[in-house]
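Morning F.,

Quick status update on the modeling queue. The single chain you submitted on Monday has been processed. Sequence for confirmation:
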Amino acid sequence: MNIGGDQWVSNGANAWLLTDAAGVIIAPNITVRTYAGHEVNATLGGNQSTGASAFAGTITLQRDVRLTSANTDNQVVAFNNRITGTGGIIKVGLGTVALNYTNTYAGTTDLQAGTLRLGAAGALPGSTDVLLANAQGVFLDLNGYNQTVATLSGGGAAGGTVSLGPATLSVGGGHFGGTITGTGGLIKTGTGSLTLSGANTYSGPTYIVGGTLAHGVDDALGPGAVTVSGPTTTWNLGPYSDTVGKVTVENAGQITGSGTLASTVGFELRSGTVNVALGGSVGLQKTTSGMASLGAANTFSGETRILDGTLRLQHAQALQNSTVNLAATDTGSLDLNGLSATLGGLCGSRNLVVPDGRTLAVGQNHASLTYAGQLSGKNITLRKAGAGAWTLTGDHVFTGRTEIQAGSLILGEGGSSGWLATPIQNEAALIFNRADDRVLDQRISGTGSLTKLGRGTVTLTADNDYSGATYIRDGVLKVLGWHSGGGLYEVGGGIAATTPVLGGTGTILGNVWILPGGELSPGQSIGTLSIQGDVNLGGTLFIELDDTGDGISDVLQVEGMLDLSGSSLRLAVLTDLDDEAYVFVTYGILRGGPFGKVLNLPDGYHLDYRYQGLNQIALVIPEPPPSKLLTAALLVLWVTTRRRC
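Structure tokens below.
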């Protein structure tokens, strides 16, 4: 059936556009109007199982019109020309109505039942307010066509679904509690606010380019990427959390909320402010010029790179689980903004300024890293946290103090760089690993251990009181001050490029074990090393002797027990010797002697392990035996007698 000619529907109590037969085409232009308070109804499609009804002419609405598709068997009633006018449309009935033209009506689009399907881009006017009932079976089907609407509202737990397909829906505002599905995306435009209170599943990107997109529930956005762009643009999660794809903030955009925003891809900050906790196992990149700031206690655990611009911290825990990589190829800067900040880790080679008087804690994520840059600042505290090993290969110039709370702080990587010159509070492990010689004049305290690696010499001049063990695995450790901590010294026991040596002229209150391959070398050149505990000398004792002046030698003073089991003695004679005795060891108790091997023993001397009947070991010229003394005396007497004759 084809109905031709222009038609008017007006002035009735209730007006009806009725087709109750399949395959009906209503071709004329139709103007629909009624008195105020009356309805205009279009009952479209009958109960037939075949055919479809279509309106081919222009429909001008001066009142809202109720579009009722009675079909329930997948038949579609189509509007193939423009719907215009000041009125709106109300979709009722369980069937499907298709809008196949770019329409310009000014009223509301109200979906109360069934499906409203779009058959053209802009099938809904961009100024229309779309309302979906909170009822089962209510669908707005974009059918693959991009669409812009003023607001999107309604829907809820019972129903109200927007099916994007591959299309994009642009929305200015509203409060929508239904579900948005499909592979397409969502764009928040305008200056208004759009609140999403349904657990949406669409997988395409979300662009927030104007106003506010707010959450009314957890996981309000689909799993796709989200971009927040513009100085008046805000993504407000409120108390809710969400997990999405890549998150991009640009053009001074803002993200706020008290929940957690997790990403499965990563965070890219160009410029803007993020005041919500960022989570996930992904990283963050600051990529363009300008500033981006982090204002929440973030938990994301991936790497942070500052390729360009400035990344400013507005919360001390903003990077608490992330490793900050100050890579040489990057040009951006990290602004700690006057905070005492915690970093998950720190690596790279560029420098970092710590605010004066503040604390920088590094290592919260327990990763083992190397940092080649230089830390600077006045009266700061550098705190090593976490179980990992943090190696510093830069020579740091900050003043203040260093704290080792957990893990290992390693100064150097076997080369000639990596140092700091502050007092060290060590509650874990401090490791020196240098190939050259360095002097630490600052105090070491705490309960942690100290390990000497590398073939260089480290000299400790301060009075230290750390109570942990001291391990000398390679190179030389010299103690010139007083070490009152009481911890064990263990020399040797590792794979060393050079002989591990404990030396110096200080005083050690603990026990000392010299393992095979290790060496104990009292003195700083010629000098005395005092050990208040026991010494187990399973390696080598190295002693220098010098006859300049009154004749002196290195001296090892052992207040406790000296065990010589498995030991060797190596002597170095600096000048010709002419004194009768050189005392080089004193002890409380002697066990395990004598030395198993003696190297470079001067001619005419031997070792006396109880020199002068005291607890001391000396290099001495032996006295002649009594028989030789008697012979010498008789010879002198005979010579004297001969002269008298």
